[in-house]
């Protein structure tokens, strides 16, 4: 492919075409801005950055995706803002109509941009229209807070979330890969969705969240315990865990693989991927008077040999 000559030819056709030509032909435009970009000729970098800015909606400043609209005076607007402005251009107040900005849509098609989580470590570069999809899956995207008792919108990397769980949610932190936990609840007849407890375990240099909760499974109230790994799914698979609960000569055991906290708490619960204890059995394990839930859950986390 003769990229160089293509680029020169196209850049003689006019402003818009030259933008497309540079965006397609010159790989330099996707690298972080640096002083040496003069080598790409005619200020390719600043031109492309300018184009990228043109693709930010002037109203909400989100990236625009087709259909991109414009007013008769040429002011662009994203499709979700267009629905909200009652057919008036927010920039010039002119009636908006229904004019597509095909040129800008085409320019976007030709752009390649770094992932928005570049600062967090992702160095991949994507065509404009597939960037969004990648970013939803990017392994460098921040994690959501694993605490599920309230609607918590905190996101961050794992060390930040561990600190957040400890300081803001007052979650118990334990060191070691075995545990022996007692759950006591005074009124076991009350089963609310997401009545729950969370403990964080520190082992193998990683953190694991042990969830314990009560919910309604069909008509039956049940208790459930499961483990989530504070990290990505591919790493979670390197670990295994077991849980045991019992008394009076009976015992329930569960062995599983911790789920990544990328999977929501609710998703794990709804897939029943954990130790499920029927309430009658839980009360039996609690020792008789049915007035109090007293469960001793023991468990172990291990690293799979590969
Ligand atoms: Zn917008
Ligand atoms: Zn306008
Ligand atoms: Zn990425
Ligand atoms: Zn939180």
Automatic annotation (TrEMBL):
An example Gene Ontology biological process: ubiquitin-dependent protein catabolic process
Entry keywords, A to Z: Metal-binding, Transferase, Ubl conjugation pathway, Zinc, Zinc-finger
Keyword Transferase: yes
Family matches, as PROSITE patterns: ZF_RING_2, ZF_SIAH
EC numbers: 2.3.2.27
Domain of life assignment: Eukaryota
GO cellular component term of the entry, any: cytoplasm
Any one GO MF annotation of this record: ubiquitin protein ligase activity
RING-type domain location: 57-93
The keyword Metal-binding is assigned to this record: yes
Catalysis: reaction(s): S-ubiquitinyl-[E2 ubiquitin-conjugating enzyme]-L-cysteine + [acceptor protein]-L-lysine = [E2 ubiquitin-conjugating enzyme]-L-cysteine + N(6)-ubiquitinyl-[acceptor protein]-L-lysine
Pathway connected to this protein: Protein modification; protein ubiquitination
Residue intervals of the SIAH-type domain: 110-170
Family listed: Belongs to the SINA (Seven in absentia) family.
PANTHER family according to UniProt: E3 UBIQUITIN PROTEIN LIGASE SIAH, RING-TYPE E3 UBIQUITIN TRANSFERASE
Protein name: RING-type E3 ubiquitin transferase
The species this protein was found in: Picea sitchensis
Organism placement in taxonomy: Eukaryota, Viridiplantae, Streptophyta, Embryophyta, Tracheophyta
